[in-house]
Design goal:
Elements (H helix, E strand, L loop, with lengths): L1 H19 L3 E6 L14 E5 L6 E6 L1 E2 L3 E2 L4 E4 L6 E4 L10 E5 L5 E7 L6 E4 L5 E5 L4 E5 L6 E4 L11 E6 L2 E5 L8 E4 L5 E2 L12 E7 L5 E6 L7 E6 L6 E7 L3 E7 L2 H6 L3 H25 L6
Parallel strand pairs: 4-9
Antiparallel strand pairs: 1-2, 1-22, 2-3, 4-5, 6-7, 7-8, 8-9, 10-11, 11-12, 12-13, 14-15, 15-16, 16-17, 18-19, 19-20, 20-21
Amino acid sequence: MRSATRILLAACALFLATGAAAETMYAVSVRTYADPGYHGVEGNLYVVDPETASTTLVAPLMVGGKTPIGLRGLAIHPKTGVFYGITGPNASSIPRSLVTIDPLNGVVTLVGDLGYGASDIEFDSDGTLYAWVPETRQVGIVNLENGSVTLRGQPLERGAMKGSFVFAGGGKAYVASTGGNGTLDTVDLASGKVTTGPQLAGAPFNDFLGGLTFSSRGTLFAINSSLGRGVQANLVTIEPQTGQVTNIGALPNDTESLAFGPTIEHKDLFADLLQWRKPLMVALFAFAVVVLLVLGRAPKRGR
């Protein structure tokens, strides 16, 4: 019985560990005009290796599967697994809008007008979508039904053209809106108050820092990019307490945002991976308990 118990518990542990580690880093780009291979594609969806920064093209981003579009922000709903993105205020079509993305083919579907030029979006664990508005350095809540943004707090001095944020826990978020040689600030999500944080150091470029996202292991990733035509973009990590930036490697030009989510292959098998993972884990655990009880009650044979 002890042997059977160890096998069952090991199986449960392996299943739980596999489910917890099932995450993929995704990235979107806003344009590729400056790339030598540009053929009218404004944006792409990529899968990124967080260890090396190497990317695999998933699909070009197309509104309705026909019109090329670039995205400034990317977020994946923690409960439904739906991919959401935002367009910039100067997008060639559906500017400053909330959209959904089909991760299998890159088809973009309009949800609605944001009402502001947001530069990043992020879901909290409950599925509330927040947006960062860099021009006034404010955070807002996005309505998933119509895309409208409700701002929080008072507008601050004019900020950068871009900016990014990621939840830090305790009702706060980290904000990067002052460039690669700026600071990693915090914003109170309830009041909207922004507090200056540590000075950033070690970034390859001084111009922009965005695409903030945490891995399940607690590593803070970001995109550090340059100004000018053919925007260079590098994948980096940031130590939130010290502001130290570590370069990982080059991403495709004009990469704008990062997000972790379930793998695309899993989404083929389940309409909602996150919806099924927990019931499956509970069922497996219950099955293991039942088997152990049955084995424990089995009559012992005499020697």
